[in-house]
Design a protein that fits this description.
The chain folds into three domains: 115 residues, Carboxypeptidase-like, regulatory domain (Immunoglobulin-like); 111 residues, TonB-dependent receptor, plug domain (Ferric Hydroxamate Uptake Protein, Chain A, domain 1, Beta Complex), CATH 2.170.130; 56 residues, no CATH class. The longest helix is centred in the first third of the chain and has 20 residues. β11 and β12 form a beta hairpin. The strands form five sheets. Strands 3-2-5-6-9 form a five-stranded mixed beta sheet, with no helix packed on it. The termini are far apart. By secondary structure, it is mostly beta strands. The protein contains two helices and 19 strands.
């Protein structure tokens, strides 16, 4: 029985750690205009794209904490007896973020709503991790050779080298962060939607899905939490897009041809190259007894030599 309890505790801790890799935490204090704390305040967080909601209450010290929040844009409705309702918009949460957001309420009737529409600058005060978030705007618009989103790791300060090789059919991403060794087996941990995304053979990353499915990824380069506990150089966390309440999609084709290639060293002519990357994405709500949102992608590569 004791062994069973130990295994159950370890399993719960592992699941919790994985969940934090693809979610965010928001915490702070609720006060009035004089700086006095307001206990028992109701804070309702709503994700704009999916209408997902999470409700928490502040404690006797006026502090609140909401963990395991799906990433994305949020609005917050803050309510307390004897105070005007605060409706805060423009709250953007990213993966692994431990953000601090304080609320200040004004005395008045609860039927009065104070709306704040400006974006909120969130500060990661929950830990001392050094990291950078590469969002979908960068993934979609920056050039990607071979449609490999891992090439964007170079955007993170501290990444000194980022090379890719594919020998004997086993892809490997060699990343050096802040002087870390590589030793041909990798010193960086890779996660996809909270699960480990690595090969056991070379201790390096597995391939990512279509870049159009990627919401964002976070590169942690220093002071990351011991909950990861695998390698010492860095943590790369990739989160794919979830669906929204509106149907949307895209169709794309990326062409690489001989005319766009340079002539190789010591050769008189170019090597023929004709590659077309074709694909499509579709996202939207799934209706039923409960409402869900999902995202689907499809793609193919046509190569003619």
């Amino acid at each position: 029985m004791k062994l069973f309890r130990l295994v159950a505790v370890v399993a719960l801790m592992t699941a919790s750690a994985w969940a934090q890799l693809s979610t965010a935490t928001l915490f702070g204090t609720v006060t009035d205009n004089t700086g006095a704390v307001i206990p028992n305040t109701t804070i309702t967080l709503t994700q704009v794209d999916t209408n997902f909601t999470r409700t928490v209450k502040s404690n006797e010290q006026g502090d609140y904490r909401a963990e395991f929040l799906p990433i994305g844009s949020y609005s917050a409705k803050v309510e307390a007896t004897g105070f005007k309702v605060l409706d805060q918009k423009g709250i953007a949460l990213t993966a692994t973020q431990n953000a601090n957001l304080n609320f200040t309420l004004s005395i008045g009737t609860e039927n009065t709503v104070v709306e704040v529409t400006s974006e909120v600058p969130l500060v990661n005060l929950g830990n001392s991790t050094l990291s950078r978030t590469v969002d979908s705007l960068e993934v979609d618009n920056l050039p990607l050779v071979g449609r490999n989103a891992y090439r964007l790791l170079d955007l993170t300060p501290g990444v000194q080298s980022n090379t890719f090789e594919n020998t004997v059919g086993f892809p490997a991403q060699h990343v050096i962060i802040n002087g870390s060794p590589d030793d041909l087996v990798g010193e960086v941990s890779y996660y996809l939607d909270g699960g480990l995304n690595m090969t056991g053979l070379r201790n390096t990353r597995n391939a990512l899905p279509n870049p159009d499915t990627i919401q964002e990824f976070v590169v942690q380069t220093n002071n990351f939490s011991a909950e990861y506990g695998r390698t010492g150089a860095g943590i790369v966390t990739v989160v794919t897009k979830s669906g929204t309440n509106q149907v949307h999609g895209s169709v794309f084709e990326f062409h690489r041809g001989t005319n766009f290639n340079a002539t190789s060293h010591a050769q008189a002519s170019k090597t023929p190259l004709h590659i077309n990357n074709l694909g499509a994405t579709l996202g939207g709500p799934v209706t039923g007894t409960r409402r869900f949102s999902s995202e689907a992608t499809a793609g193919c590569v046509r190569s003619i030599q």
